[in-house]
Amino acid sequence: MSAVKILIVEDEMIIAADISMMLESIGYEITGIMPRGEDALKSIESTPPDLVLMDISLKGVLDGVATSQFIYERHQIPVIFLTANADDATFARAKATRPYAFISKPFQPADLQRAIELALARLAEEHSGQSLLHVNDKAEDAYILADRIFVRYKGKMTKILLQDILYAEADRSYCKIYTPQAEYLMSISLGALEEKLRTDNFLRIHRSYIVNLHKIDTISDDWGYLGIGAQTLSVSRSFKDELVRRFHII
Known about the structure:
This protein is α+β, with helices and mostly antiparallel strands. 32% of the residues lie in helices and 32% in strands. It has helices spanning 13-25, 37-46, 64-74, 88-96, 109-126, 190-196, 237-249; strands at 2-3, 5-9, 29-34, 51-55, 79-83, 101-104, 132-135, 140-144, 148-153, 156-161, 167-171, 174-178, 183-186, 202-206, 209-212, 218-219, 225-228, 231-234. The longest helix is centred in the middle third of the chain and has 18 residues, at 109-126. Mean pLDDT is 84; it is low at 130-140.
């Protein structure tokens, strides 16, 4: 589990520092504050963020629009444009880079947070049509991608890498996802989650359990039980053959 990582590209350093403090106060991780587009591209190569906040009118060789175009072509990382004023020609250029949002300066923290969450939602939808999920009884949003899930946890959007998931357990019409750090109650059935987790790393072993095969520590001689950390999980007869087959492949 880790915070969503955001790169700020803004040449007004006072504004950039304010944005950084604002985002860190609500739980996001800032990978850097870059005043120029060229610096931003180097930062992305060394420390890829989940999302970029981009001033549309940067000084230097690359303005915000040109920098965003490079990011779109090379990395497919979501970009949210920040702008005080943009003429029609600049706005038209910016639209061509397929930004995930435009935010006019000055803006409120809530406006920025909503734009970030909407960007994550759009990113999820663009990954093989994977759809929106809802988390806990407040029906808060979670977004599942090819290699991660973004969920709201303790008031902020948090990233869970699929490789960090230990197992998922059915809880009536809900399911719980367990990681080494925390557990998450999601208002989706285990069967529906199984459809989303289309990867060789996960396997249904029981009507109540989906496990990350790479997190299994022990298996009983008869393949009827397996251990993940301190937890012992039952393997149903109907799923046993597939478990054996998958382990032979691994």
